[in-house]
């Protein structure tokens, strides 16, 4: 009975499916019973495969879960330890990257700090130089006005010169006396001692060698045997070195006479310019100054004060202006307004600063656009207290400008006056002036014989 009912249900279901498939896939024609059986078998197989796949997936997932659950405590610890190591390694890499970035930032900050410190140091040095220059100016402005040089003044200057080189003379003569003391003959040992004495007096190695060679020749010819006359021989050789003569340009054949002053900071350049301007004014010359040191406002102010004191005119611009423009305007005014002497100041510059030395060359070119053979004098101001460094400065400035003369200041405050001898010997550039004090009359034209005599007087 039940089997019959199932057959009936299956037949009815098969008829419905046949009707559905024939309408949708067979243009309304009934499908053969054998084909329908195959179709139903295929559908049944497909559904069976889907069920089996779902069951297999669910079973695999369950097995994995069971496997994880079955892991021993030690295996779990190993797994956790491995994960921890991986996290620690990643953290360490991040820390290293952060430290590297921090180090780079600190390096950049350090460079900026060093640059800032360098700038501050340069400002401090500049302020100290301005302060020293101002002190010198204040002392100079307290002095009385200069009078025209007389024979009495010349004698007075000789006294001041001897007093000014007293430290140099004392050191030189005392050391010479010690070297020859108790010596009965001129030996190699004595000549070595003399070499130390001369070099110690800042005469310089080249000039010392020249003096010793002359003495050695006389010793070899038996013309010189007594150690006690060595001082006289050294004086004679120094006089020979200092006997160079040079022509000095004047206002008679050049009008205006263009003087260009150069030198490093702190040598007394601006003060020297003021003193020389005052001396020309005492001679009745019409003098014009050019404030070419536009890097320091204090330098311009100092030169303005000197122009008032010396009763001469001045061309100036604001601090920071182009110094070559100041040179051009100064020389042009000197030509147009019939000045006798034009004195041009320049910025104090280190002889090792190539860019500033190039600027000096530019100023010379600008002056020569107006007067082809100018400047007629390029005067380098040197500080005697710097000793052998004055010779190094002379070499460097000779490369940047055609030096025609040297001015050596502060001989009164130094035991290194022997450097004057070395400079005269090594360079074919005359010493034009020497300074042995702060007053205007303490800066005088250089007399080689007078200077040598004052060293041994």
UniProtKB/TrEMBL annotation:
Transmembrane segments annotated in the record for this chain: 35-57
Membrane topology recorded in Swiss-Prot or TrEMBL: Peripheral membrane protein
Domain (SRP54-type proteins GTP-binding) ranges: 430-443
Protein location: Cell membrane
UniProt GO BP: SRP-dependent cotranslational protein targeting to membrane
PROSITE patterns to which the protein is assigned, alphabetical: SRP54
Main subcellular localisation: membrane
One Pfam family this sequence matches: SRP54
MF annotations from Gene Ontology: GTP binding; GTPase activity; signal recognition particle binding
InterPro entries assigned to the protein according to its UniProt record, in alphabetical order: AAA+_ATPase (IPR003593), P-loop_NTPase (IPR027417), Signal_recog_particl_SRP54_hlx (IPR013822), SR_rcpt_FtsY (IPR004390), SRP/SRP_N (IPR036225), SRP54_GTPase_dom (IPR000897), SRP54_N_sf (IPR042101)
Coiled-coil parts of chain: 73-154
GO CC list: cytoplasm; plasma membrane
Alphabetic keyword roster: Cell membrane, Coiled coil, Cytoplasm, GTP-binding, Hydrolase, Membrane, Nucleotide-binding, Receptor, Transmembrane, Transmembrane helix
Record SMART domains: AAA (SM00382), SRP54 (SM00962), SRP54_N (SM00963)
NCBIfam families: ftsY
Family: Belongs to the GTP-binding SRP family.
Name of protein: SRP54-type proteins GTP-binding domain-containing protein
Organism: marine metagenome
């Amino acid at each position: 009975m039940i089997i019959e009912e199932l057959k009936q249900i299956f037949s009815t279901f098969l008829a419905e499916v046949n009707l559905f498939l024939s309408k949708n896939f067979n243009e309304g024609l009934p499908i053969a019973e054998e084909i329908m059986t195959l179709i139903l078998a295929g559908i049944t197989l497909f559904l069976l495969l889907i069920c089996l796949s779902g069951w297999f997936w669910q079973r695999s997932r369950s097995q994995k879960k069971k496997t994880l659950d079955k892991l021993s405590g030690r295996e779990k610890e190993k797994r956790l330890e491995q994960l921890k190591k991986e996290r620690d390694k990643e953290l360490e890499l991040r820390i290293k990257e952060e430290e590297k970035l921090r180090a780079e930032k600190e390096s950049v900050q350090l460079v900026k700090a060093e640059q800032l410190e360098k700038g501050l140091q340069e400002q401090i040095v500049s302020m100290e130089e301005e302060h020293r220059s101002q002190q010198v100016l204040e002392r100079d402005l307290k002095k009385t006005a200069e009078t025209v040089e007389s024979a009495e003044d010349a004698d007075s200057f000789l006294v001041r010169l001897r007093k000014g080189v007293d430290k140099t003379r004392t050191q030189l003569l005392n050391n010479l006396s010690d070297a020859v003391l108790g010596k009965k003959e001129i030996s190699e040992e004595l000549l070595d001692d003399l070499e130390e004495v001369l070099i110690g007096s800042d005469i310089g190695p080249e000039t010392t060698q020249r003096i010793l060679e002359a003495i050695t020749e006389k010793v070899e010819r038996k013309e010189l045997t007594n150690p006690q006359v060595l001082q006289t021989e050294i004086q004679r050789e120094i006089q020979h070195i200092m006997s160079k003569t040079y022509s000095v340009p004047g206002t008679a054949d050049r009008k205006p006479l263009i003087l260009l002053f150069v030198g490093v900071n702190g040598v007394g350049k601006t003060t020297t310019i003021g003193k020389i301007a005052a001396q020309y004014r005492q001679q009745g010359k019409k003098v014009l100054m050019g404030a070419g040191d536009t890097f320091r406002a204090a330098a311009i102010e100092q030169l303005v004060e000197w122009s008032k004191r010396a009763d001469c005119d001045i061309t100036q611009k604001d601090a920071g202006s182009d110094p070559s423009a100041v040179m051009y305007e100064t020389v042009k005014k000197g030509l147009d307004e019939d000045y006798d002497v034009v004195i041009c100041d320049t910025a104090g510059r280190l002889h090792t600063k190539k860019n500033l030395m190039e600027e000096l060359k530019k100023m010379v070119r600008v002056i020569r656009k107006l007067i082809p053979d100018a400047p007629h004098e390029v005067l380098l101001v040197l500080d005697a207290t710097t000793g052998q460094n004055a010779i190094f400065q002379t070499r460097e400035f000779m490369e940047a400008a055609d030096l025609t003369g040297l001015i050596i200041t502060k001989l009164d405050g130094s035991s290194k006056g022997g450097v004057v001898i070395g400079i005269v010997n090594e360079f074919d550039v005359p010493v034009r002036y020497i300074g042995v004090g702060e007053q205007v009359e303490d800066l005088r034209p250089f007399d080689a014989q007078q200077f040598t005599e004052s060293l041994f007087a």
